[in-house]
């Protein structure tokens, strides 16, 4: 299953006024192996010139409400160097300011 265009547009619209420079899809949706129980895995490159704080947690909760599915939102800086190559191999750019 692929991420449908409606959900993709909702993600893009949501990130427009958030401290997000880029967003990438990874995991089962980027591999086209998602099913109805799959969560949505998103990596964001944050704009640290703006105060982030608890906004990051709120972004994850907001996206879950908007998309009506579980969302795992990760900061690009928080990804372990050991798993980064696997994620980089499959990630797909879905938003860029």
Layout: helices, strands, pairs:
Layout: H1 5-15, E1 20-26, E2 40-46, H2 55-67, E3 71-75, H3 84-90, E4 92-96
Which key features would you list for this structure?
97 residues; alpha+beta; Beta Polymerase, domain 2; four-stranded mixed beta sheet; 4 strands; globular
Can you walk through the features of this model?
This protein is of the alpha+beta class and 97 residues long. It contains 3 helices and 4 strands. Strands 3-2-1-4 form a 4-stranded mixed beta sheet, sandwiched between helices. Helix 2 (55-67) links the parallel strand 2 (40-46) and strand 3. The chain is globular.
Instruction: Give the proportion of residues in helices.
Output: 25-40%
- Give a quick account of the main beta sheet: strands, pairing sense, barrel closure: 4 strands, mixed
Write the CATH fold name: Beta Polymerase, domain 2
CATH architecture label name: 2-Layer Sandwich
How do the helices and strands follow one another from N- to C-terminus? HEEHEHE
Low-confidence stretches: none
Q: Find the CATH superfamily.
A: Beta Polymerase, domain 2
- The number of distinct β-strands equals 4
Strand content: 15-25%
Cα separation of the termini = 26 Å
Oligomer type: single chain
* Structural Rg: 13 Å
Count of individual domains: 1
Structural class comes to: alpha+beta
- Could you name the CATH class? Alpha Beta
User: How many alpha or pi helices?
Assistant: 3
Form type: globular
């Amino acid at each position: 299953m692929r991420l449908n265009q409606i959900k993709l547009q909702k993600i893009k619209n949501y990130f427009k006024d958030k401290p997000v420079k880029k967003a990438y899809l990874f995991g089962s949706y980027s591999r086209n192996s998602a099913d109805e129980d799959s969560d949505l895995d998103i990596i964001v490159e944050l704009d640290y010139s703006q105060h982030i704080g608890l906004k990051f947690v709120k972004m994850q909760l907001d996206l879950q409400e908007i998309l009506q599915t579980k969302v795992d939102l990760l900061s690009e800086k928080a990804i372990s160097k050991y798993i980064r190559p696997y994620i980089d191999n499959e990630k797909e750019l879905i938003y860029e300011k």
